[in-house]
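Shipment paperwork, digital attachment
Item: protein structure file
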Amino acid sequence: MKIAVIGLGKIGLPLAVQYATKGHDVVGIDVSQSVVDVVNRGRVPFPGEAFLDVKLAATVDAGLFTATTDYGSGLAGCDAIVVVVPLFVDEEARPDFGWMDAATESIAANLPRGALVAYETTLPVGTTRERWAPRLEAGSGLVEGIDFDVVFSPERVLTGRVFADLRRYPKLVGGLTPEGAARGVEFYESVLDFDERDDLPRKNGVWDLGTAEAAEMAKLAETTYRDVNIGLANEFARYAEKVGVDVQGVIEACNSQPYSHIHSPGIAVGGHCIPVYPRLYLWNDPDATIVRAARARNAGMPHHAVDLLARLHGDLAGQTVLVLGAAYRGGVKETAFSGVFDTVRALESAGADVVVHDPMYKRDELARLGLTAAVRGDAADAVIVQADHADYRSWTDADVPGVRTVVDGRRLLDAARWAGCAYVAIGGIPTGAAPAGSMPSDAADALIGA
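Attachment content:
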């Protein structure tokens, strides 16, 4: 087949390379000429994706994969078109379809008769049928279900391990017609391989969910579940702080029973998926009170971490606070919906002087994010752990001269290495001596009534 992948970002590029490794003729289309140029040299335009550098170079060298900004040449003669263009959501849960609308209109203007169009970007339920198919018809003059077919098939992978996740998880497909769905199943079976799994209700592979709406809802539901579960864990953590209980031990005890799967609490829920897709669900279902409450609880955790620090440390005005981690999670150079921004704003509102360290970002990169950079060895009065970078496991109080208080938002640090400080993890019991000037003097009592 000739396959086009629209959008060569952190998901689209690995998908395109995966298809090429199966021997298909693949063209990637992206609006960025610089991305296209880098890809055509067989180089990866972003770091951190396992095996992508080797696979990309091999497929480009073999002539199986090229990139372009031109929809006309890129889509000419295509059998399948896979769309992985970003969709953005504002704080009011309103989706911004701008980039996807533009891509869809460009596809429509160059749509080959007989092509299969598969949308993989996570969408509100009903979008594929009610928005994309009519736009493709209007722009092409063709008829969906007769001249071309449209399916929705959500990406279910995590950046950094895309190739492994493509094998691990069933590929969900929903069509607008049974015939289109069958084409979607046939397409994905030809471009993917799957690990054997005995824990699934049916064989791992491509699963037809019956309709595009079912596939759209499946992606929203699986991610919203995680946000709600983390929200519940954060609720438990905040109550555990009030009553002097370590929530981690409680969660481990609960999860020893096979019907309990409580996630871990933490300072923030970031990334392109978990904090975003519940908002798309709320756009469809604004009366979903459980989803809305969990989203609000998780969004409030950076402010809670700062409150925790203030109760343990004392007045933060004029204090230098070091935030460890700008990224939304450890090992990833990405700040999408990262908790660092709300954490810094909350600290600044309390009068603190805030500096940020991240082993994956240079000083000028942090500056472009509006953050003041710090390096290991800089002095600070207090520390808040925001991202669980593995590097931080080796840090001790000697790495932050003058530090008196630590709030570990990820339960990453070894408290024994910070013995000269008052230390507390979210949902934990404070250890170490209370800093001079903290209010009240007893660190455990400081958390009662939080």
